[in-house]
Design brief:
By secondary structure, this protein is of the alpha/beta class. The chain has a single domain, classed as Phosphotransferase system, mannose-type IIA component (Rossmann fold), CATH 3.40.50.510. It contains 5 helices and 4 strands, in the order E-H-E-H-E-H-E-H-H. It has a 4-stranded parallel beta sheet with strand order 2-1-3-4, with helices on both faces. Helix 4 packs antiparallel against helix 5.
């Protein structure tokens, strides 16, 4: 892989932009994550937005929910045969890990990010 892996954060409303902004503020890293929102579009338009964001690059698509229009668009993109992996249920911890692991293959980066995201979820006593 010659170029660093691209991360696409695909979400409802402005969540993607907010998460990308938070990662940039915490890490100082910019350019590794691209926000894509489903705001104001149907499934076809969302697919076009996602395709444009990926732009033929190797990528991991981080989707906000494990169902719905964003995940459907990501899963349709998997059929293109490009080197793309999908992680559903994005959180900040996985994105923070991802920006420092952009040298990995998409499947490896997705697996590692998901593991970090799961480890970050806690239920704390009241």
């Amino acid at each position: 892989m010659s170029e660093p892996l691209k991360g696409i954060v695909l979400s409802h409303a402005a969540l993607a932009q907010a998460m990308v902004d938070a990662v940039k503020q915490i890490t100082g890293e910019s350019g590794g994550l691209v926000p894509v929102s489903n705001d104001g579009c149907d499934g076809g338009q969302l697919g076009k937005r996602l395709d444009a964001a990926i732009g033929g690059s190797d990528a991991v698509v981080f989707v906000d929910l494990p169902g719905g229009s964003c995940l459907q668009a990501a899963m349709r993109h998997l059929r293109t045969g490009e080197q793309v992996a999908v992680v559903a249920g994005v959180n900040l911890a996985m994105l923070l890990d991802f920006v420092y692991q952009r040298h990995l293959a998409p499947a490896d980066a997705a697996r590692r990010a998901a593991e970090h995201g799961v480890r970050a979820v806690r239920s704390l006593p009241a």
